[in-house]
Amino acid sequence: MSLKTASVLVIDDDIDVLTAVRLLLRPEVKEIVTEKNPENIRSILAKQEFDVILLDMNFNSSINTGNEGIFWLKKIKEEFRSTAAVIMITAYGDIDLAIRSLKEGAFDFVVKPWHNERLITTIKEAVKRKENKGTGAIALPSSSLFETELLGKSECMQDIFYKIQKIAPTDANILILGENGTGKELIAKAIHHFSGRSTQPFVKVDVGALTDSLFESELFGHKKGAFTDAREDRMGRFELANGGTLFLDEIGNISLHQQAKLLSVLQNRTVTRLGSNESIPIDIRLVCATNIPISELANEARFRKDLIYRINTVEIIIPPLRKREKDIILLAKHFSKIYSNKYLKPTLDFDDKAIDKLMGYNYPGNVRELQYTIERAVIMSDGNILTAKDIIFSPIEQTMATEEVQFSNLGAVEKNTILRVIEKHSGNISKAAKELGITRTALYRRLNKYDI
């Protein structure tokens, strides 16, 4: 699709803006429709689908928060089910609003007054991306880093690829959410690759594995003699990442005490090595990751809210492989090629039953499990075709998945029991706790856990 065949809808309460955009785009696009009142968006989209929508962020000059535009963006994407690429326009350039609109599904963000060439280029990119969604084109560069777990033609992965390219050049802190095996570290590396810090260090720390005694030493460093085994001065990971990107993996597993230490460093932008009183300035871009859902991180008994705001300027949610059906065979064939070369075998393809078996599995171990499954199949294969017999899924992952289901079922039983007892006692928490054999405090924790 070229720009000449594209249709564009512009919604802005400034008539001068509508006139200027109409004059600019009339020679460039097939059709341009302008609308002053956002209340009419529903009826317009009910009659016609557009390729691109230019949407103002503020429809009330006395309220310049961008909330109006975000509201209508959500309506367009969720309620009106439009497939158009939405470009937000505003006179109030602010990185927080830009990131917020991108988080809600906007394609891009432009500031009034814009450069005409820039606006046209942005619309061209939006049209091209809308077309690419149907072909599986990937926006990331062709390199070994991005040709493995991050390979994907599903819409959700295309959205992630695009979001990486938009947010990576900023210094915004990123929180990556996703199950184990979905490729959170590769996303972090991609963000670093596209940032202005790409020539500087990328330092990874699995903070969830650090004990309280090691946490400060590993992250902040120590002076010789600070503790028994401190035989020399040592830089911490913050210092090692100075000028570059610090990736804190499994951030959701650190203790409240560790969270307080981390928050202090992020607020002050300095670190103090153990055994020293000297504050060392740091300049890092922070990327964090966890397999814990954001809803659990919002529980202040588990995670400090002020730290969440610090690390989560924008989040990237990586879907599990079972929600990326379009990518399963694409990834399987790619891994087959990699391991055929590695083990000096001819390029192996899949027969129909093997494909059916791959598509019928739920992948509790996600992309990592698929990768190991294909590697095992290539090693054990004798011919040029991988069959269903060659595809053997990990019994460990299946056992863990079964245990998770059982645990989930137990949680449902507990929740229903609590609801029944509370209803029995007409909402009296003290009586309900007494019958359940737990304290009021413990009952309140469970009420919070199950959102009762």
Q: Brief overview, please?
A:
This protein has 452 residues and is α/β, with parallel strands linked by helices. The protein is built from 18 helices and 16 strands.
Outline the structure in words.
The chain is α/β, with parallel strands linked by helices. It folds into 4 domains: 3-132, Response regulator (Rossmann fold), CATH 3.40.50.2300; 155-317, P-loop containing nucleotide triphosphate hydrolases (Rossmann fold), CATH 3.40.50; 321-393, Orthogonal Bundle (Helicase, Ruva Protein, domain 3); 397-449, Arc Repressor Mutant, subunit A, CATH 1.10.10. It is 46% helix and 14% strand. It has helices at residues 15-25, 41-47, 67-79, 95-103, 116-132, 155-167, 184-193, 212-220, 237-240, 256-268, 294-297, 305-311, 325-342, 352-359, 366-380, 395-424, 429-436, 440-449, and strands at residues 7-11, 31-35, 52-56, 85-90, 108-111, 174-177, 202-206, 221-222, 234-235, 245-249, 270-272, 279-281, 285-290, 314-317, 349-350, 385-386. Helix 4 (95-103) links the parallel strand 4 and strand 5 (108-111). The radius of gyration is 26 Å and the shape is globular. Mean pLDDT is 83; it is low at 134-149 and 400-405.
